[in-house]
Amino acid sequence: MDLELIIMNIINYSGEARSLSIEGISYAKNGKIKKARNNIEEANDRLAEAHKSQTQLIQGEARGEQQELSLLLVHAQDHLMNALTIRDMANEFIDLYEKVNIVEGSIGDE
Questions:
Q1: What's the pLDDT at 18?
Q2: CA gap 56, 37 in Å, rounded
Q3: DSSP assignment of 38-95, as one string?
Q4: Does the annotation count 75 as an active-site position?
Q5: Which residues contact 16 (CB under 8 A, 6 or more apart)?
Q6: What's the whole-model pTM score?
Q7: Dihedral over alpha carbons 85, 88, 90, 92 (to 10 degrees)
Q8: pLDDT reported for residue 83
């Protein structure tokens, strides 16, 4: 696969995962815990796709196929790492909102 296409896949899937995670926090904040967790599952799927693309690059380099370091590749890696961090934090927020909503009796899952 073309290097630029692999990089764009990483950026695209990571960006989708980040957005889904942030949206999941918003759902949890409004008591929609089930929707929030569904968003995290979708984010995990997108991150798995981004990781597949990243793995292609890593395996190629392990075979001796040196990749030229580019700003676009660094940008893609930055997107992936941020998406992973936000997904992890979203899980924590969702757990917290679930507990708060239980105490307040305000879970309105749809």
A1: 98
A2: 29
A3: HHHHHHHHHHHHHHHHHHHHHHHHHTT-PPPP-HHHHHHHHHHHHHHHHHHHHHHHHH
A4: yes
A5: 43, 46
A6: 0.88
A7: -130
A8: 98
Domain segments of the chain as ranges: 3-104
d(CA 40, CA 104): 24
Q: Within a 10 A sphere around the Cβ of 40, how many other Cβ atoms?
A: 22
Q: Yes or no: is domain 3-104 CATH 1.20.58.80?
A: yes
At residue 65, what is the residue type?
E
Among 75, 96, 102, 109, the active-site one is 75
Structure confidence by residue, pLDDT tens digits, 5-57: 999 999 999 999 999 999 999 999 999 999 999 999 999 999 999 999 999 99
Q: Which residues contact 67 (CB under 8 A, 6 or more apart)?
A: 3, 57, 60, 61, 73
